[in-house]
Design a protein that fits this description.
Layout lengths: L10 E3 L2 E3 L3 E3 L16 H9 L5 E8 L16 H16 L4 E6 L16 E2 L8 E3 L5 E3 L4 E2 L2 H21 L3 E5 L5 H6 L14 H15 L8 E5 L15 H12 L6 E5 L15 H5 L7 E4 L4 H9 L5 E4 L1 H5 L3 H7 L25 H9 L2
Parallel strand pairs: 3-4, 3-14, 4-5, 5-10, 6-9, 10-11, 11-12, 12-13, 13-14
Antiparallel strand pairs: 1-2, 7-8
């Protein structure tokens, strides 16, 4: 009998047992086109098709109206959204899958168009100076955001807590706090976007305070071993976030502190962009943080079956999250098990609003059947 591939071995994440280590990464797909921006049948079909993943992490779900920065994203702040997500979760569970919700606030990576003309919120009044699309698909430049008051920070912490309570009501197995990719929590981490001189800026402890307050608020609904967090220490040149000489020391501090919390996992991203010209940024994130972090470490970005198996086998990570490969291969763990060819994705339909490029990718069995009938 051949040895089970590392990716296909079971693992326990805190209170959740997974059948394999092939994780479906959180993927913004912009398919919530109804009045309340709630999941509908398309979402049910999409996630259920991928229930063979060891764990599904949902698309980023906005924790409040103020968290919005993209059109057609399914949030988790109204009753219709809770009910829509409940149907998704029930269907995934019926197929034997596990699913966490990713809690999301974009902060300054937004436009006044999404906030009735009011400014987006951020740690400081620093324009990311990027181009975004509004709800009508029109490209616009970002504006200088509103620097959050202490009261507004506390309000946002409560909104994360309420969103976690809503996810609990919807039946999710756990939640992931989206603390990366240049969005609100990450903006508090970064010295260029956070210029505060109060208790939320300056020192590593202060820059991390917002994150840990959110973690405590989320723990009111989920035990800490059903909570994950996503971090991107190597983000550079995305959404106005750049690495600085303080970046890696800050994340070293943050991740050391996370050892005091029995999280389900920590989810890290390898570099999205070339950071070879930024000497202080570690280019291999998993290898850098594996000796530092003592819990379950998940890694993502551009992995395939071979490289995913290798990074687990070498001990640099415990799980691997796959994004684009899961878009075009609903049965990705089966394809890995059979060492079968994977289907290519259609990038033109990543953020379109219909079923095309969302629920119409074939499973391997159908591909083989179609080929044999030719």
């Amino acid at each position: 009998m051949s040895e089970i591939q590392p990716l296909l071995q079971p693992i326990t994440l805190g209170a959740v047992q997974l059948k394999n280590r092939v994780i479906m990464a959180p993927l913004t797909r912009c398919r919530a086109t109804n009045e309340h921006q709630a999941p509908d049948q398309k979402h049910i079909d999409y996630y259920t098709q991928r229930a063979g993943a060891g764990l599904i992490i949902s698309e980023g779900s906005e924790v409040s109206k103020k968290a919005r920065g993209y059109a057609f994203v399914a949030g988790i702040f109204n009753d219709a959204q809770i009910e829509g997500w409940k149907k998704v979760v029930d269907s995934v569970h019926h197929k034997g899958g596990k699913i966490f919700m990713q809690l999301w606030h974009v902060g300054r990576t937004s436009l006044p168009d999404f906030h009735d003309g009011e400014l987006p919120w951020a740690p400081s009044a620093v324009n990311p100076d990027i181009e975004l699309r509004n709800a009508h698909g029109e490209k616009k430049q970002t504006v200088t955001p509103h620097a959050m008051t202490i009261e507004e920070i506390q309000q946002t912490v409560k909104e994360f807590g309420q969103a976690a309570a809503n996810a609990k009501t919807a039946g999710f197995d756990g939640v992931e706090i989206h603390s990366s990719n240049g969005y609100l929590i990450h903006q508090f981490f970064n010295n260029e976007s956070n210029l505060r001189t109060d208790q939320y800026g300056g020192s590593n402890e202060n820059k991390a305070r917002f994150f840990f307050e959110i973690l405590e608020a989320v723990k009111e609904s989920f035990p800490v071993n059903r909570i994950g967090c996503r971090l991107n220490p190597s983000l550079h040149g995305v959404f106005g976030i750049h690495g600085t000489p303080d970046t890696i020391p800050f994340f070293d501090y943050l991740i050391h502190r996370l050892n005091d919390h029995d999280l389900a996992y920590m989810h890290l991203s390898e570099p999205f962009t070339d950071v070879s010209d930024v000497k202080f940024l570690e280019s291999n994130i998993a290898k850098h943080y594996r000796p530092i972090y003592k819990g379950n470490l998940m890694i993502n970005n551009a992995f395939d079956r071979e490289s995913g198996n290798q990074i687990i086998e070498e001990g640099h990570a415990d799980l691997v999250a796959f994004g684009k490969l899961f878009i075009s291969n609903p049965d990705l763990p089966i394809r890995f098990e059979l060492k079968a060819k994977t289907s290519a994705w259609n990038q033109d339909t990543f953020y379109s609003q219909g079923s095309e490029g969302y629920t119409d990718y074939p499973i391997l069995e159908d591909v083989l059947s179609a080929n044999s009938s030719k």
